[in-house]
Amino acid sequence: MSGGGQGLGKVEVRLRWDPSPYGEPPRHLDIIAATYPADDPYGWPAYVVHYDSRSPDGTINMIRHSQTGMGLGFVEVMVLEFERLSSVYGRVVVGVAIHQDGGPRTFGDIAHAGVVVNEGYRQLLADDFTQVADATAATVAEFTRNETGAWDMHEMIRGFDSDPVPFTAEMGRIPQ
To answer: Model confidence over 102-124: pLDDT tens digits?
Structure first.
């Protein structure tokens, strides 16, 4: 899926969830993006972007971050500027991981969790994690550079049983 034959430009990934019930530890989710070299798109990521980092060239940034959900709509936002991403990169995988502080949690334990991917006013993807309710992390979308050099998006809702750190190594692998 892409826009009008010219590929994707500036894309936002937005994440929402409700805070934990009174007296329970905070529920903390993170958007994570892994960028892969064009010559090894299923190998190790060239770099990973999350709440505490950004891409080396500034083309992938977390512009809003929440550690509690707050219940006020989309509280975490990552921007990916594909029109500026170097041609040495051929694939970007975006996912969401649940921090496991305070005990194991799955998407089924997180009230009103949801993710959308937008390019401008056009919604490319919306999901509520229902199909990965037993997972602790999930990929959401895969962005690939096509033969013309333009970027396309493919929905990639796939659940994992991982903490955020191991998830960054697993999220871009080919499913077994």
So the answer is: 778 999 999 999 999 999 999 99
Q: How far apart are CA 27 and CA 69, in angstroms?
A: 7
Residue 88 class from Cβ within 10 Å (0-12 exposed, 13-18 middle, 19+ buried)?
A: exposed
- Residue 151's pLDDT band, with cuts at 50, 70 and 90, is very high
> Any residues with CB less than 8 A from the CB of 160 and at least 6 apart, and which?
95, 135, 136, 137, 138, 139, 167, 170, 171
**Identity at 66, one-letter amino acid code:** S
- Read off the pTM: 0.91
Angle of CA points 37, 42, 48, to nearest 5°: 60
Of 154, 135, 165, 156, the closest CA to residue 51 belongs to 165
Tokens encoding 76: 């975490």
β-strands 114-119, 89-98 pairing: unpaired
